[in-house]
Amino acid sequence: MNRFKIIFGLIGLIVLQSCGSQQNTIIWVSGIKTECTAGAGKMHCLNVHQGEDIENAEWEHFYSEIENFEFEEGYLKKIKVKKEEKENVPADASSIKYTLINELEKQPDKRVQIKGKWRLVSLNDHPVNKKASLPDLEIRLSEMRINGYSGCNNYSGTIQQLTQDSIRFGPIMSTKKACLNDNVEPEYYEAVNSVATYIVEEGRINFYNQHGEKVLSFLKSNEADKRLHDIWNATQIFGEPVTRKNSVPRLEINLTQMKVYGADGCNNYTGSITKVTGETLEFGNLASTRKMCPDMQVPDQYLKAIKQVAGYRLEGLNLILLDSVGDEVLMFLKGD
């Protein structure tokens, strides 16, 4: 009898230990991926919230994968996942395995509507003088940052808070040019700093202060940024610096002819621009010369990267080319 008690006791202990190594949990997954830093460098992570109050969710970076889960930009998903402890895990990897059990709820993530480039049409609920230089605004949700042109200077800042209807910007950093032309910069910056809530409707975004007064109104801008039309020298390929002293890859973008020209560090190439808007940039097939150079590593990587280009971002004198999921593939410095 004692022997059976011991056997059943051991079985019970094993079952309890097994149950203790896995558990189920419910989380919300954001409809936005944001830039995060992992062991291998920068990447775009899921954002998750553990709690029922989705309106005031406290989003945190989620560095692991969720097996069988499909992320959809623009949709909030409430899911049930299984958590299991892994064994013999490398030092820079997660010790927990997450597996989707089922999707409990799905709803639009309205925050995604605000991303992109916008052109100012109203300031403090009054039309902007079109003869003056008009401010613009770019909202980059993947980095939770904003940047733009104030009508006089370039500016940038962070998004400190963002829910389905409220938003708060961090301190605005600006260049310090003294502009002689008519501009609304002081009033514009004051309005940006007062923003508390927003509404997006029919290609327009309206910002309101804490008293519910409309302070800014923008229209969606799908026009290509004219600063693209230039010559650019590559500084990074897939996040790695271009260190070659000679024959640095070069890109010339001609928006008038909708053409691109350049050199990959060995061969010259040319091609067409098939699509360009305020944030997208797509090239057609590139025709290239066929020289073989002693070192083909940079040219090969450059051509691999430029074939993945689907979008762009301009930061001062830098042009950053992005792939279809918003990851950086190439960075350039203005050439002249």
Give a short overview.
The protein has 336 residues and is mainly beta. 12% of the residues lie in helices and 45% in strands.
Q: What CATH architecture of the largest domain do you see?
A: Beta Barrel
Computed structural class: mainly beta
Task: Give a quick account of the main beta sheet: strands, pairing sense, barrel closure.
Answer: 10 strands, antiparallel
Give the end-to-end Cα distance, rounded to a whole number of Å.
Answer: 90 Å
What portion of residues is helical?
A: 10-25%
Question: Which strand-content bin applies to the residues?
Answer: over 45%
Task: Describe it.
With 336 residues, the chain is mainly beta. The protein folds into 3 domains: 89 residues; 109 residues, Lipocalin; 109 residues, Lipocalin. Helices cover 12% and strands 45% of the residues. The protein is built from 3 helices and 27 strands. The strands form 3 sheets. Strands 8, 9, 10, 11, 12, 13, 14, 15, 16 and 17 form a 10-stranded antiparallel β-sheet that branches. The radius of gyration is 25 Å and the shape is flat. 24% of the residues are buried.
